[in-house]
Amino acid sequence: MTNDFTPKYTVPGITEKDAGKLIGLLRLRLHALNDLHLTLKHVHWNVIGPHFVAVHEMLDPQVDRVREMADDVAERTAALGGVAQGTPGSLVAERTWEDYRIGRADAIAHLGALDIVYTGIIEDVRKAIAEAGEIDPATEDLLIEQLRDLEQFQWFIRAHLENAGGSLATADVTSEAEAAEKGAALS
User: Which one of the record's GO molecular function terms can you name (predicted)?
Assistant: First the structure.
């Protein structure tokens, strides 16, 4: 993002310029978490098939934790002197990823697509951790804590996609649609 998020004030020990960098970084994390929360609920509502109950019930705790993560990111943004922009219009206008496109589908198809979603989010969080770590250990720590939970959630997803030989059904796919196809083939 090329926007200037430099605040008029920030927390002690961080310059306004550095706080602006952190605010810009956290803005995309907030959008990603809000998008993930909505995507997880979308899957929760549209999952079908023999794994329905397991997947349906597995997703709600993830939704709750992702919502907490978004709140933590928004509050850190505000503490740094920024605006926690949580509107749907801002999310859609500023996101750097495509919308989730799988509708009513088999549980394993959705899990294949969610694996791709989690991979993208986790990769972006790791980049944000590296950037934040150069400026502020508190923001870095917040992101590290969230990374652990996101990786655990992906592990839960992948447990449904792994075969007895340890191979992941969605290995080497690059899109949610392709992952959903491969996942559906497992069902």
Answer: oxidoreductase activity, acting on metal ions
